[in-house]
# Entry
Amino acid sequence: MGRTPTIGGNWKMHLDFEAAMTLASDLRNRLGSVRGVESIVFPSFPYLRPASQRLRESAIAVGAQDLHVEAQGAFTSGVSAEMIRSVGCTHVLIGHSERRSVFGDDDGLVSRKLSVALEADLIPVLCIGESLAEREAGQTFSVLERQLNSALRAHTTGAVARMILAYEPVWAIGTGLTATPEQAQEVHAWVRGHVSGLLGSEYAEQLRIQYGGSVKPSNAAGLLLQPDIDGALVGGASLNAESFAEIVRAAR
Ligand code: 13P
# Structure
């Protein structure tokens, strides 16, 4: 099928400036010329420009963790898609569960953010996932269905051609609990099937779906071996250059 694995490092609101720049340089040294795997880091807004300068002409792409839907104006603290592009980013996270749960991004806003990212020619990494309560109530697939339908219904396959999807079960994020490779594979296969219903099987077959939630060097290989897991979106373990590099190597 030839889906190139893609590993994202979501730095969230971690690291002071110096540590972030050291990490970027360290990653460049370890991964700058790795082929066959796509690596992307998602530093905080103030670090985007210097991180992209450090990673220029390396194999590591830089993305933002969020964007504001408006292009410009009186939106204090907002950061537009064009601003993100202008500092060297190629990617942007859309609908991360922390945006959804902490900042109140609902399905409607996530869908608008996805459109704005696509219009700005940023590659969106659209995040979906169920909470522990939803999983325990047997609602995993209905939650994912709602999130996918809301985000993708408005788009043609051409518009979302370069999009990456990230399945991040909320109960596995930052908790040390990881979905087993079988649990994750079951959901990934379902997601691909659902996307196939929405946008066609040709599109679904080339769509890369990352798994996220306590991915570490010790569990990455097992997850990445699954046929429908095409990469990982890594939080905590991406803050250490060697552990992130190990996960990238596991994807190769
Ligand atoms: P952890 O790897 O720290 O669980 O975070 C996952 C995540 O939210 C990546 O976006």
Q: What stands out?
A: The chain has one domain: 6-251. Residues 10, 96, 168, 173-174, 212-215, 233-237 surround 1,3-dihydroxyacetonephosphate (CB under 6 Å).
